[in-house]
Design goal:
Layout: H1 15-31, E1 43-47, H2 48-51, E2 56-57, E3 67-73, E4 80-86, E5 88-89, H3 90-103, E6 112-114, H4 116-123, H5 129-143, E7 146-150, E8 158-160, E9 165-169, E10 175-182, H6 187-190, E11 196-200, H7 201-206, H8 211-220, E12 228-229, H9 230-237, H10 243-259, E13 263-269, E14 272-277
Parallel strand pairs: 2-5
Antiparallel strand pairs: 1-11, 3-4, 4-7, 6-10, 7-8, 9-10, 12-14, 13-14
Helix pairs in contact: 3-5, 8-10
Length: 279
């Protein structure tokens, strides 16, 4: 693995300092509440570090998903995200948003149960067999992840799996009536209330998976969005599109976000995107 991807707590620090920092990190987890912060039923929440990164990208769902091995994910602003696992997209983000909404009602580390029917209904997906498979695939995919996140407020790398454990079938490979998910206690570090973005759930789930849903989360994480280059948004979306094609799709996404009422106005001039949020 390249040196710049090594999970060093502080690149210039010695082993003693790194060890001390890791112990402080463990103590911080132990001292925190066992529950995630609360938010209204009408909202869902994700850490800013996630929403401002290309972790959940916008690639065409018809393209095969890539397996990423210790890949540094594009981030806008402060921080670094290094990922190992199958490529994650906007449908995975939607699933993870709702999962964390369910998990916040129970102590971290304990099993959370739900019926796949209720989960799919909450996502706004049609109730049909292929979406049961789609949900199972999303959850299985996020279980098999290794994610390292670093930012100024975290101080050191936080290593997590998006889902610690997931069960949807019994030992006879029969589908369970109630699916079970566990999330690790270290998720407390990411879900610090001061660094969470709460988004309107109805708006998020109404958006098609793609550039509009991705930028909805990104701009929701800024009270007053600042101008940003088209090139920067292309990296954030991780769509794999050519710049010319992306720019055309970006305009459609911006207009959709205005039509939903999220944006008051938008402008694209000299390769710079300027938006005004309505709420």
């Amino acid at each position: 693995m390249p040196d710049h991807l090594q999970p060093t707590l502080f690149p210039d620090a010695g082993k003693t300092q790194a060890s001390d920092t890791f112990q402080e990190l463990l103590a911080s987890i132990a001292a925190r509440p066992k529950y995630l912060p609360d938010w209204p039923e009408s909202h869902r929440a994700l850490p800013n570090e996630i929403l401002r990164s290309a972790l959940f990208n916008c690639r065409n769902r018809n393209l095969p998903r890539m397996f990423l091995k210790e890949v540094e994910i594009a981030v806008i602003g402060d921080g670094q995200v290094i990922y190992r696992g199958e490529e994650l997209r906007q449908d995975d983000e939607l699933v993870w948003m709702h999962l964390m909404h369910l998990i916040k009602k129970s102590p971290l580390g304990e099993c959370v149960e739900f019926t796949p029917y209720s989960f799919i209904k909450a996502l706004g997906w049609p109730i049909k067999g292929q979406n049961y498979d789609r949900l199972r695939n999303c959850l299985s995919r996020m279980q098999a992840t290794a994610l390292r996140i670093q930012s100024k407020r975290l101080h050191s790398f936080v290593s997590i799996s998006l889902i610690q454990k997931f069960l949807s079938r019994n030992e006879r490979n029969e589908s369970l009536t109630r699916w079970q998910v566990w999330v690790g206690k270290e998720m407390q570090l990411l879900f610090d209330e001061e660094f969470l973005t709460k988004v309107m759930w109805e708006t998020r789930r109404s958006l098609p998976d793609g550039i509009a849903s991705k930028l909805f989360g990104y701009w929701a994480s800024h009270r007053k969005p600042y101008p940003v280059k088209v090139e920067t948004l292309l990296k954030l979306c991780g769509s794999g599109m050519q710049a010319k094609h992306f720019k055309a799709e970006l305009k459609k996404a911006l207009e959709l976000l205005r039509e939903t009422g999220f944006l008051e106005a938008w402008d694209l001039k000299d390769e710079l995107v300027v938006v005004t949020r309505r709420h």
